[in-house]
Specification:
alpha/beta, eight-stranded mixed beta sheet, seven-stranded mixed beta sheet, about 20% strand, globular
Amino acid sequence: MCKHQGGLFIKDIEDLDGRSVRCTKHNWKLDVSTMKYINPPGSFCQDELVVEKNEENGLLFLELNPPNPWDSEPRSPEDLAFGEVQITYLTHACMDLKLGDKRMVFDPWLIGPAFARGWWLLHEPPSDWLERLYQADLIYISHMHSDHLSYPTLKKVAGRRPDIPIYVGNTERPVFWNLKQSGVQLTNINVVPFGIWQQVDKNLRFMILMDGVHPEMDTCIIVEYKGHKILNTVDCTRPNGGRLPVKVDLMMSDFAGGASGFPMTFSGGKFTEEWKAQFIKTERKKLLNYKARLVKDLQPRIYCPFAGYFVESHPSDKYIKETNIKNDPNELNNLIKKNSDVLTWTPRPGATLDLGRMLKDPTDSKGIIEPPEGTKIYKDSWDFGPYLRILNAAVGDEIFRHSCWIKEYFTWAGFKDYNLVVRMIETDEDFSPFPGGYDYLVDFLDLSFPKERPSREHPYEEIRSRVDVIRHVVKNGLLWDDLYIGFQTRLQRDPDIYHHLFWNHFQIKLPLTPPNWKSFLMYCG
C-alpha cells in the first residue's frame, strides 16, 4: 500500500530491472531496493516490513501492530438523554458540539477568505455563530491551513474571550506558528501530545492523532462522551496511518476534493482543458469511492461529509470555479447507503443532530432538526473589499523598490542544493505580466539569480503569481499554500515532474519567523 494516499502497488511495466512498482492511484513510483520514491523524487520513504526468521530458519514478514491508543482505559457506552449530546453544523469544517454541560467547537472559519483570496465560504453561517463561539469551553483546531485556522474569525472571538482554551496537536510545524504576526491576542493555546486522552471532565475526553502522510501538519480527533465516540478525520490523507476506531457513533470527514492548484492552474504539454476535465472527474470519483470504502470498513453508526463547503467566488477566479468541480455530499451518502447500513447526514448550516435520539431511533423526526424554513443556506455575497485591501497594501511596499529583495527573500527561505530552475513572474489579475513587476530566474542548485537559463541539463518551472498575493506572502514570510492551494498562480513545468522537495519546503518548511525587512531596508536602501 502506497504511503502517499493508500493506493495499491502494481508492477511498473516501464522498469526493465524489476526494481520499481507503480501506485495505481497517482502513478507514484517506488524503488523497492531502496524503499524510496523515484517519482516524485525526494518525497517519502516507504515503511519497510520487519524481517524475522522462523523455527525452520525461513523468513517471516511482519507488519508492526501496536495497540490502539484509544483502547487505553476503555469505557462502556452509557445511555444518553435526549438533548444531552447535540452536534450543530455551522459551516465548512466547523461543528459546535454540546457534550453534557460542555461545548466544544471544531475548526471555526466563519468570516473572510482562506488561502489569501482563493477560497470563500459556500454556506451562510447561522446568525448566532459568534455567540456560539463565545460560549465554547474549548476549541479544537486541526491544522494551520486557513480554512481551519481562520485568524479573522479568531480575532472576533479574542475581542471578548482572549483566554478561550484552544487545543492543537504537537505537530512538527506549530499550528499557531504565525500567531504573533497575525496580531490576534490569544492567551490559552494548549499543544497536546498525540495518542493520549485529554480529560475535560469525568464524562468527556478527547484524543488528537496525527496524519500518516503529513504528520508535520495534519491531525484528526476522537471525542468521547460517556463512552460514545465521535471521530473527525478532517483533511487527513491517511489519518493515524490508516488505523482508526471502528463502530464509532458519529464519523465526519472531508469529501469534496478540489483543494489543490493541480491541475487547474497548470498549462502546456498534456494540460489541455479536455485532459484536466477528465483528470478532475476521475480523481473525484476515486475520492468518492475511497471515502465510501473507508466508511464501510469503519462502520460508524452515523456518517457526515463536511470540510468541503467552499467556493471560488471572486470574479477573477471564474475559470477555477467552473473547472474545479467538487464532489456532491449527497452522492457520497447515497453510495454509502447502497453498500452499508450506516446512517448518513448531509449538514445544512444551523442543523442539529441529537445523538441520543438518533442512536435510540434513527427514524425519530427530532433526531435531526433542520434550520427553520426560509433560512438562508448559501452565501450570495462576500465582503471582498477589506481582505483585498490588506493584500494590495503589499504591492507598493518599500521593500519592492529594491531588486535585491529577491536574493534576500530566497536566502531567508533556505532552499538550495537542488537541481531546479524556476522563473517567477509577477502578474495582474489575468496572469499577464504586471507593468513594472519583477520577472526573474532562481537557480536552486547554487541559489543564484541568472539572467538566462543555465546551459547544464535542468528541470524548469515557470510560476506566474498575482502581484498582490505574492508580495503579501513575501513581505510576511507566509507559506506558499496561499499561492498554490489558493489558485493565485499559473504554472508550467518541463519535464512534467512534481518536485516534492521544492514544494514541500515552500508550503510547509519555511522559517518560523518572517524575513527581517527592517534590517534589509537599512543596508539595501
